[in-house]
Specification:
Number of domains: 2
Number of helices: 5
Strand order of the largest sheet: 1-2
Number of strands: 4
Shape: flat
Strand content: 5-15%
């Protein structure tokens, strides 16, 4: 017998279709229901078989070199990802990152930069936001 989806189910599906990596908390804020409600509805959708998997959407334009040929057409077989190189842009100036990026790590996040000047500029510009995220991360119970 078919099961009707309620408004919360539909809102969760729409949110996940925009970004499948969203946390239950982010979805709950977006659709104005509690986090446990989102989790319960999500698990129900998985158990019903409607949500089969959460898969990455790969931006092939970010892959450098011959590895990008692996992603032409539908990827239906297992693909060897070893040795792939990814083109990235500096989080501060938007320019290309050549060689090893300068990395800023905080609160379980990573940001990539072309040079130490950009990394330091980003750190200075977003100091308040970074501190807020670090404090939130410290308060979060470990899983």
């Amino acid at each position: 017998m078919p099961v009707d989806l309620d408004d919360t189910d539909v809102a969760i599906l729409k949110s996940l279709m925009e970004d499948g990596r969203k946390s239950f908390r982010a979805i709950s804020r977006e659709i104005s229901v509690s986090t446990p409600t989102v989790k319960a509805h999500y698990e129900r959708l998985v158990n019903m078989g409607l949500i089969k998997a959460v898969k990455p959407e790969i931006d092939v334009s970010k892959i450098a070199g011959p590895g990008r040929d692996l992603f032409k057409g539908p990827v239906t077989k297992k693909v060897r990802l070893e040795g792939l190189k990814v083109k990235i842009k500096c989080e501060f100036c938007g320019g290309p990152v050549h060689g090893a990026p300068k990395v800023l790590r905080f609160a379980g996040l990573e940001r990539f930069f072309c040079c130490t000047s950009c990394r330091n500029g980003y750190r200075e510009k977003y100091a308040g936001r970074i501190q807020s995220l670090v404090e939130q991360h410290k308060r979060r119970p470990s899983r």
